[in-house]
Amino acid sequence: MPSALPEILSGIRTALAFAFVLLVASELIAARAGLGYMIGWLGDGGVYDAMFAVVLTVSLLGFAADRAFLLLIRWALRWRA
Fold it and tell me: I want to staple 36 with a disulfide (CB 3.0 to 4.6 A). Which of 17, 20, 24, 64 is the partner?
């Protein structure tokens, strides 16, 4: 199990990024609330500066989640260093 842990955590990291993409995409299509819905609503209304602010917010949330998970990976794999 310890030798497989780096690959498992790498797969989870990829899944985390894919989850953010799917979350926003599904909100764009089917939701009545959320950041994805807000991106679509603002884009349809022509309020592009606010729309890109929401896109930047989603990007920063994804980046922060990735960095937090990297810290967790470094802690869990500290025996490899």
Answer: 24
